[in-house]
């Protein structure tokens, strides 16, 4: 017969019922602190102890840390002190210990902490997780000199294996949950939005707000310069939303005649106008359940703005040429590079529509404010359009020094041209040509404050500074683009300290 098999001959039916009850309770819990508090409270009652505690073993620093302390009287937890001798003994033997009377127990007769704290009886057992001591469930008796018994030791010894397993499952679950939170945060920071490339602080902020807004169903106004990627932001919001498996439809509003735009958005009835040979649904019906992205909303004709407001307010609309009220559950995302508040003052845009569209406002940063993302963008575009193409350090430096009035779209176009011109599959500085026409046609060439408040001389100075930036300080090319002599530009640059 194996003498190492522990005997449980003192256990009673009540002990087994307590083990069953505690096991059921632990299986329904998912928080370590709740489990420990439940165990301590019920085991204090079961054993008659005055003090119960969970002592965490910090393996890295080889120290014991009281995590939870419960007392039966009015003592404060901070006034309770323990004997490290007990903890060290459990750490060494990895078994439950019982001391009926520490005054007669040779193991504790010289333990000053036991004597000073007047600890009379001790009952403690280890929680073993992954074959390591995770902590100790500890009970003692002090003032009332409660005597623990062998039945209590056997009870806790048997229960310790069950409690250890339950605690291991809870800790594993918490670990997975924490890892998921970390992963979600990392994805929010680095982007779980493949189409949007960037790690700069402005892009981190953009990713964060996209993730927050996507979980809601509110209207969003997306603003930013041409070429910054406003439609990509809208699509990202849709893809991360509960509507991701429903349609995403984008419609450009600018420069479309009112009647054609109305029929595109709301549909039309047969015979509504010349050429309407059959009924046709509009984009609101086509996007039902999904998302409709309206680009350049500032160009929406004033006579259609009341209809747009009605859709936003009531999700109701009428097809062109009919009186039937139809409904569509559509989330509206709108974008513009215009100042809508200025259009409101000019009477070109309805204020009530503006507030309906602008529940959340997202500003997409221009490329010049996130130049640290240029290497990532270059890598992204080259891998997408020309996987075998590389770029030299000097060429990349040239891209980093440019001011990018046309933003990411301009960068993509320039890389496509440079890839055509490059020899030996490597883009060099001379392969990169900044298109003057592209520069001039980009939005926000002149800040609004300069347009409305600056003197002619200030505007001239601003343009000269910008042009020198665009040509990387090359005064010959800058002078040629401005149609002035090199000498005149040199004098002006000297005057401006450039």
UniProtKB/TrEMBL annotation:
<feature type="domain" description="Sigma-54 factor interaction">
    <location>
        <begin position="196"/>
        <end position="420"/>
    </location>
</feature>
<keyword id="KW-0547">Nucleotide-binding</keyword>
<dbReference type="Pfam" id="PF13185">
    <property type="entry name" value="GAF_2"/>
</dbReference>
<dbReference type="Pfam" id="PF25601">
    <property type="entry name" value="AAA_lid_14"/>
</dbReference>
<dbReference type="InterPro" id="IPR009057">
    <property type="entry name" value="Homeodomain-like_sf"/>
</dbReference>
<keyword id="KW-0805">Transcription regulation</keyword>
<dbReference type="GO" id="GO:0005524">
    <property type="term" value="F:ATP binding"/>
</dbReference>
<keyword id="KW-0238">DNA-binding</keyword>
<dbReference type="GO" id="GO:0043565">
    <property type="term" value="F:sequence-specific DNA binding"/>
</dbReference>
<dbReference type="InterPro" id="IPR003593">
    <property type="entry name" value="AAA+_ATPase"/>
</dbReference>
<dbReference type="InterPro" id="IPR003018">
    <property type="entry name" value="GAF"/>
</dbReference>
<dbReference type="InterPro" id="IPR025944">
    <property type="entry name" value="Sigma_54_int_dom_CS"/>
</dbReference>
<dbReference type="InterPro" id="IPR002197">
    <property type="entry name" value="HTH_Fis"/>
</dbReference>
<dbReference type="InterPro" id="IPR027417">
    <property type="entry name" value="P-loop_NTPase"/>
</dbReference>
<dbReference type="GO" id="GO:0006355">
    <property type="term" value="P:regulation of DNA-templated transcription"/>
</dbReference>
<dbReference type="Pfam" id="PF02954">
    <property type="entry name" value="HTH_8"/>
</dbReference>
<protein>
    <submittedName>
        <fullName>Nif-specific regulatory protein</fullName>
    </submittedName>
</protein>
<keyword id="KW-0804">Transcription</keyword>
<dbReference type="InterPro" id="IPR025943">
    <property type="entry name" value="Sigma_54_int_dom_ATP-bd_2"/>
</dbReference>
<dbReference type="InterPro" id="IPR002078">
    <property type="entry name" value="Sigma_54_int"/>
</dbReference>
<dbReference type="Pfam" id="PF00158">
    <property type="entry name" value="Sigma54_activat"/>
</dbReference>
<dbReference type="InterPro" id="IPR058031">
    <property type="entry name" value="AAA_lid_NorR"/>
</dbReference>
<keyword id="KW-0067">ATP-binding</keyword>
<dbReference type="InterPro" id="IPR029016">
    <property type="entry name" value="GAF-like_dom_sf"/>
</dbReference>
């Amino acid at each position: 017969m194996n003498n190492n098999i522990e005997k449980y001959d003192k256990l009673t039916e009540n002990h087994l019922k307590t083990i069953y009850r505690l096991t059921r309770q632990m299986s329904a819990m998912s928080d370590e602190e709740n489990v420990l508090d439940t165990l301590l409270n019920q085991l204090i009652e079961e054993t008659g102890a005055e003090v119960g505690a969970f002592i965490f073993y910090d393996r890295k620093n080889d120290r014991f840390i009281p995590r939870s302390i419960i007392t039966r009287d009015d003592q404060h937890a901070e006034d309770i002190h323990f004997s490290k001798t007990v903890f060290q003994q459990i750490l060494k033997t990895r078994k439950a210990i019982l001391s009926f009377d520490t005054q007669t127990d040779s193991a504790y007769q010289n333990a000053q902490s036991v004597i000073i704290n007047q600890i009379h009886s001790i009952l403690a057992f280890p929680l073993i997780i992954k074959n390591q001591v995770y902590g100790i469930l500890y009970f003692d008796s002090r003032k009332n000199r409660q005597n623990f018994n062998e039945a209590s030791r056997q009870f806790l010894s048997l229960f310790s294996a069950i409690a250890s397993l339950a605690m291991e499952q809870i800790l594993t679950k918490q670990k997975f949950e924490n890892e998921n939170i970390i992963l979600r945060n990392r994805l929010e920071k680095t982007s779980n939005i493949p189409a949007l490339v960037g790690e700069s602080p402005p892009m981190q902020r953009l990713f964060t707000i996209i993730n927050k807004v996507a979980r809601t169903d509110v209207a969003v106004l997306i603003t930013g310069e041409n070429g910054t990627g406003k439609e990509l932001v809208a699509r990202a919001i849709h893809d991360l939303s509960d509507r991701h498996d429903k349609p995403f439809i984008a419609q450009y509003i600018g420069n479309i005649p009112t009647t054609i735009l109305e029929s595109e958005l709301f549909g039309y009835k047969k015979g509504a106008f010349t050429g309407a040979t059959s009924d046709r649904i509009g984009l609101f019906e086509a996007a039902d359940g999904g998302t409709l992205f309206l680009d350049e909303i500032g160009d929406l004709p004033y006579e259609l703005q009341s209809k747009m407001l009605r859709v936003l307010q009531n999700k109701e609309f009428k097809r062109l040429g009919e009186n039937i009220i139809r409904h569509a559950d559509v989330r509206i995302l709108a974008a513009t590079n215009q100042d809508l508040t200025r259009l409101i003052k000019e009477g070109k845009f309805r204020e009530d529509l503006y507030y309906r569209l602008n529940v959340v406002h997202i500003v997409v940063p221009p490329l010049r404010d996130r130049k640290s993302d240029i290497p990532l963008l270059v890598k992204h575009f080259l891998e997408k359009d020309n996987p075998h193409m590389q770029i030299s350090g000097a060429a990349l430096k040239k891209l980093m020094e440019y001011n990018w009035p046309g933003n990411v779209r301009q960068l993509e176009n320039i890389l496509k041209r440079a890839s055509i011109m490059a020899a030996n599959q490597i883009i060099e500085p001379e392969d990169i040509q900044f298109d003057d026409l592209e520069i001039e046609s980009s939005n926000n060439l002149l800040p609004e404050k300069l347009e409305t408040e600056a003197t002619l001389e200030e505007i001239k100075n601003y343009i000269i500074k910008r042009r020198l930036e665009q040509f990387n300080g090359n005064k010959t090319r800058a002078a040629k683009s401005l149609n002035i002599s090199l000498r005149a530009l040199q004098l002006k640059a000297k005057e401006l300290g450039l």
